[in-house]
## 1
Amino acid sequence: MQIKNQKDFWAGLLFIMFGAFFVGIGFDYGFGTAAAMGSGFFPLSVGTIVLLLGVGLAAKALVIGTPAGTIEGLRLIKLVWIIGPVVVFALMLTTAGLLLSLALLVILSSFATAENKFKGILINAAALTTLSWLIFAWALEMPLPLWPAGLSG
Amino acid sequence: MDTLLQNLGIGFNAILATESVSFAGISAALPMNLVYAFVGALIGTLIGVLPGLGPVTTIAMLLPATYALPPLGGLIMLAGIYYGAQYGGSTTAILVNLPGEASSIVTSIDGYQMARQGRGGAALTAAALGSLFAGCVGVALLAAFAVPLAEVAFEFGAPEYFSLMVLGLVGAVVLSSGSLVKSIAMVCLGLLGGTVGVDPHSGTARYAFDIPELMDGISFVGVAIGVFGFAEIIKNLEGGSIPSVSANKVSSMFPTKEDFKRMLAPMLRGTGIGSVLGLLPGGGVVLASFASYAVEKKVGPHRREIGQGAIEGVVGPESANNAAAQTSFIPLLTLGIPSNPIMALMVGAMMIHNIQPGPQVMTGNPSLFWGLVVSMWVGNVMLVILNLPLIGIWVRLLTVPYRILYPAILVFSCIGVYTVSTSAFDIIIAAAFGVLGYVFIKLGCEVAPLLLGFVLGPMMEANLRRTLLLSHGEFSVFATRPLSLALLLVAAALLLFIVLPSIKAKRQETFQEA
């Protein structure tokens, strides 16, 4: 069995996965009747649609292929270097404070492309941290944890 | 007509109202709403110029910041960003063949050719004038149709709202560029995502797994930023940086008399196309500009020159995208239904200020509604004045390499998401949707339908439940009520229309052009 249309096949699988997830758990919420919709009515119905669409899509992808169907240019490493620092930022924010976390965010995410040189990264980090402080904390006076927990601002 | 003038009067009053502001020790009375319109237009143009940063991400980022602003001011600024971006995108599309916005892609085809022929100035002026005209018409339509549409909306019951949302989602599917099956599935995924959290009807927590932050549902701003912001960045970084091009010299700014004559018809056509397409759910600026381009290629005495620097190819799409930007506010402000992801964000902005979008905004808060409408007209005028002299600066901005720009986008996005609910968890949501969004893009699935489904899901479920409750489980009620039937028929017609093979080919062809 050959995957003729990569994009459609994996998309189909993704839909099957999500559909199954929502349907599987949705059973616990009770379907109810049409006149008295239970909590599960909507998710189960829509989830089933997604599941069926996914099955159809994946099945068709095994049979019919088009050149536009090949996945191109997938660069997972870029994903890691963008999403990773964001997650780090989120986890660090309340403990390390905004300014440190932001600086780290800029520094880490700059590694996503080989073109960034170290000096440039540091300047960018300093500039962005200062700018963010100026705009969000000083000008807009938003409630943000600036410094690490335990240190008063 | 009298009431229209009255209403516009309310609007002008609202927008010219002065507030006493003090900054760094100096106080003055300023018409702050004009300031917000200006700031919005400026930011909008700026991000329109910069490729890789678009109005959706920016509005999502600035949404929480508008909390600090008064409701009208915040909405004015966000609206300014949206239509400002349409102006900004065309500047770089014409001068350096780097459209800052998807809606300016077609403008770059003829616009850049004109620039290379030394006629960049004429192209820019044509784009600006076309955009101004279209913007004004769009606002006029908004003003004229608001009241009658709202009256129709008051007739809407739960079945009509449900059918309208079905139409909206079908529109989003049909007017998106990818495979229909995938778009429908994406819409449905969005609907499912919207069910996460406590079900307001029964109080049961759905798909929340005892995570307290999920009880209120998945943060919409988080999803928007993840899918439109983070995923975009990852995609842009795939193939190396965006190349910078040396700008062509802009000699004479003014179009010739011949140019003016040729501009008129495409401007009118583009405005018409854009006004209609902006109105349709799922339509919007990109579709409008593409459609206008397709029309200009088929119609008009100079149609064969399209592609080689014909001014029609600039004026038409630019008018279309500006008209669409304005009219896309109509469904939101009259019916309370967002017709595209940007409008969905506007819903968010209104909710932040405790305003329930819908027809009652017009009657209950006229200065807000009409102030916003008038601000759009003022904003359009400001933009023309802004853009022509500042073009040199915009082009120079393009020299900021993307490798420095994207960390900035990340910074502002993260702060933006955090401050909506002071929740670091929302940032994690954004990150997760960044991954998901990237995967979807790679697999050829359109993400805008996902977002729309996400926003409309809870409303649809509530309306469905109410309808079925009142009709004792009879689904036929959707067809027996005339308004609801009409809406569903239009939705069905759209679906059928798209499935016809000839239209299918046309659709693919239009999207392949770019």
Note: Residues 107 and 121 of chain A are 6 Å apart (CA to CA).
## 2
Amino acid sequence: MQKDLLQVLAKNIDLVLPADKESLLLVAALYLKTDKSLIPEPFGQQDFEETVEEVEELLVREKGIQKENIARKLSQYFYTTVKGPRPYQLTIYAKELAKLVIDQVNPAIQRIELIHTFRRTLPLKPEDLENAESLHYWEENHFIPSRKIIFSHIEQLQRAVDDQVLRLREIFKEKGANPASVIDSFMEVFGNLAVQTEGIIQALDHKMEVLTILKQAHERFSLKQEEWDLYSKTLFEVSRFFEMVDNRIAGINDKIRIASARLKNLYKTFEYRQQYRLNLEKFMEYILLQFSERKDEAEFPIQIGNCNLPYFSDKFVYIPLIHFADATGIRMKSLSTDREYQEIQREANTNILLMQKTIAKWTDLLLDEITENPEMNLSKRLIEIYAEENCVEVPIMICSNLLASADLNSRIKFEISKIANFLDKNTFLWELKIIHSHF
Amino acid sequence: MGAEDNPFAFLESRAAIDFFAETDFLLRKGRHIQNSGSDRKVWEFIQDYFENLEYYYSNLYGVKLTGNYVDSERYFFLEFSEESKGKFSGQERSRELSKLQVVFGVLLLNFFNDKHFEKKLVNWEELNYAFFEGEHRNLWQRILMRDVKSNYSPNELEEIQNRMKTIINEFEKIGWVQWQNKEEMIFEILPSIDRLSRIYSQEIQNVNLMIDYINERLS
């Protein structure tokens, strides 16, 4: 059976559903116009054509809509012809479909609080519970039809809350907005959500009222089994329906609560930031004021510490390998050499070295001799050295070295005394005495 | 830490071979590393090996590797402990920001907070406004030019600009700003400028108390 139905639907789907957006929009437009009596019902050819033109404008179509074509598409399920000067009438199916579609997007519906829908569609008066017939009437004509409407409203509410939460995210991401206007936008969104929240709360209260009234009426239906069965079934259906409503509303509540918490945090953050901003500006003003005029470098009050950062910027030092020829590009002149002069210099340097060697040798020897024999006659010894080396410079340098060594050797001291009038009054002789101490 | 036995084993990883040297150079220069621009790879390396690096610098240099968050963005830097500068003691190894740099940094912090929902770009016009038309213009002029005048010569203005450029160059080295256009003096303040606010957080939060206290002591 089900399969057959689906096969039939598949065959007729192009006709049952509006074939395109132009068709759907036309049906909706005709429904709205007849509903608000802008055109009579049934309506005429002119009304139809004018509405087609309005749909063309709405959709900003480059090419016009073929009126005959669209009329043909809608003729099966969306309008019927009647006798009279105005031969067209929308079918019940067309009206229901148009109403369903319009309700889905109607922002006015989204602004209506849920409590209004509850009160409008699910009133429960005491007379509805007088007897089994009235209860049955209430169930068939109020409760069952209202379920669809209430669920539909909840779905729209869900969508509205989702839109508002999305709007919140977009507001937050807006660049260039100052905090005050951002908060204003947030508050506007939350104003809308607050109204809906209040409606939800009242709807839940109303729901509890209905359930309580229903439960309290159990005694009236306990006399007869069939009345009790009807009452139990109605109570069960109502309870189950309200449970489903609770579940759906709980989801919406959670979203509103999360968004509300986010706003609260944001508000607190803005408040804190604003205060921080003020403090920061005051801090800057204070340290600007504290700059000393006496010195080049400003002074902070001692209470404000210094800002120390690790900073190690020493660069690794390396020694360059200079390719001199590449570096200068200048050819070096070859140096001329005086070989004779070089030879003379070499010989002189050699002699100096030999002399220094001899002096060092005699100095060491004399120091040893002084150490062994502190009473040694230094003059006599130096003369002996002079005779051997046949160079006066040797004993002179030896003497100089001995004097120098006295600084290094605390056991050796020198006394210098003057022997006056050696040859004549202009010539003096100095006597140098070495004193060697063994201690 | 990754390797329980050898906390320095991470230095043998591929990532360390590729990025440790650069990371080390930058951190020891005092730079604040953020997940943007040329520091991105270094940031990722620090993020991945934070504990190892934290131990490395604490153990070998006596300084702390720190990661702070600003609006869910993290930045890293080395900082001294309260007790010592570790191996950065000595004049050649660490330096203080000058007072003028600190004041200018606080000015940038103000800009950063003002531009809450926008990119933190600053241009010379904004600085010009702060120095010559803003609420604290006299104070700024006294600091920058030692004298408050109604008009400054082009040379004097150029001197101010050059001083600012020098400071901004320094701040770029430590990762607080990034030049966008040096010729037109446009730069972006980076989130790590937050570091300055943390260092002086007590003073900023309690600025009124601080002012009262100092004034009381001075009177």
Note: Chain A has a mean pLDDT of 78.
## 3
Amino acid sequence: MRMNLAALQEKLLAVARERPPADHVPYAFEKRVMARLASAKPEDLWSMWGSALWRGAAACLTVAVLLTVFAFAQEQASSATNLSQVYDSTVSTAADQLTDSW
Amino acid sequence: MDRSDADLIAAVLGGDTASFEPLIIKYSPRVFATARRYARRESEVEDIVQEVWSKAFHKLNSFRAEAPFEHWLMRMAVRTCFDFLRSHQRNREQTFTELTDSEHDWLERFAVAPADRSGDAAAARLLVERLMEQLSPSARLIITLLELEDRSVKEISQLTGWSIPLVKVRAFRARAQMKKCLAKIGREKYV
């Protein structure tokens, strides 16, 4: 027996909408939160500075790697151009020599 | 005399940490109700809500009184719930052969008489929970906000920080994901 999936979806969502989740708060919850806030270590400026430096170093390394890849790619492209030029000059030289020898 | 939210916030920012407690007492019910949509275990719910309040306390100096404190807090709550979903992604490939007898009965009854409203609501809610657990975190968040809480795309964009086009795309994908999960029920149960 096939089910109408769209109707099934609508019905399930309607059931979920009918009864929203409970909003009761556990006993003394606010005391636990205040205790947690009181025991949290104060922000250490030096460790914040250190983590900012690490993030900066990671960004610089990424830029360096990208530039290296770009430079390498440029070099490959220019050496490929040189190869084609060498090929052209070789072939044309050979052709000139053949012409001269006739 | 009750102090207003603005007075309490000003006091906390001025160094009076104790003034934060009335805010926790006032808004925790709403935050707990939100967290209970995304976590099953009560211990996880309490962890999420504690995390929300911890973030709210440490970022209180970024609160601009352009909108009510509750809106700012609920944005934080939704984003914390989303982070929870992402960090607790379980293996979502559970099959629907693990359904309880009451869930099977509910589906049988639906297949025979879809319009019948007298079915076991508890079984239906269990099915919804299973379905939601199968969704990706963003799909689950969108379906919860859009379909269950009946929020507009603009509100969802403000709560999540996603752009409006992104909310629409994710809503479309979420509905498709949900249909795919339901189709799985059809295949596993009736093929």
Note: The interface with chain A takes residues 17-18, 20-21, 24-25, 28-30, 32-33, 36-37, 42, 46, 49-50, 53-54, 57, 107, 110-112, 114, 121, 124-125, 127-128, 131, 143, 147-148, 150, 178-179, 182-183, 185-186, 190 of chain B (CB under 8 Å).
## 4
Amino acid sequence: MLRSWRSNDVEFVVVGGVGAVMHGAPVSTFDLDIVHARSDKNVCRLLLALTRLDAIYRGQGSRILRPDARALLSPGHQLLSTNAGPLDILGQVGAGRTFNDLLPNTVEIEVDGATDIRVVDLKTLIEIKREVGRPKDLAQLPTLEAALAELGDPHDPP
Amino acid sequence: MPSSTPPHTQPPSPPQEHSYDTNGVDLTLVRWMISLTPTERLQVLQSNIDAMTKLKHGRRKS
């Protein structure tokens, strides 16, 4: 999924559990969380990528509802099922952090020897979890903080 | 320098210190994940998800 998005020039940042794993934190997650740039052009590219993934909203019973530009331009969370697994597209995270807010605190991580994926750094990931403050986010903090401590400088590429 | 005590009578190595931090986080697991490449880390995650999915769909026998 991530590889195809990069080839479609979709601007996004990986956050959440997958982001933590990419930094080396031993956590589990079942979905991919991303924050996307909410420009008209990027939403257009994102919609094309989502069409290829056959993305529909989760939890709609028998109804098939697909995301549209209006939804992706909003700061809301789009919880989707795709042919590559569950995907959460977040207009903003934590205390209202948008793609542009997150960008200075991201690193590019090479995956599969060919694809660079932009991921929020671990220190910022921890801050976001604190800002969200749900029990499940707070429960992960000890593990994330231990990984951060083992890594040293959070801006060092893993 | 060779030990004066024969190997089979030497006390066992002390248990690994600092395996857990004060929050109970298994640091050996953290260090292992960090030793992997990002690609390998994602493969571990995918493997875990696949295993959990299989378990979730398993059938109780009794």
Note: The interface with chain B takes residues 18, 21-22, 24-26, 28-30, 109-113, 142-143, 145-147, 150-151, 158 of chain A (CB under 8 Å).
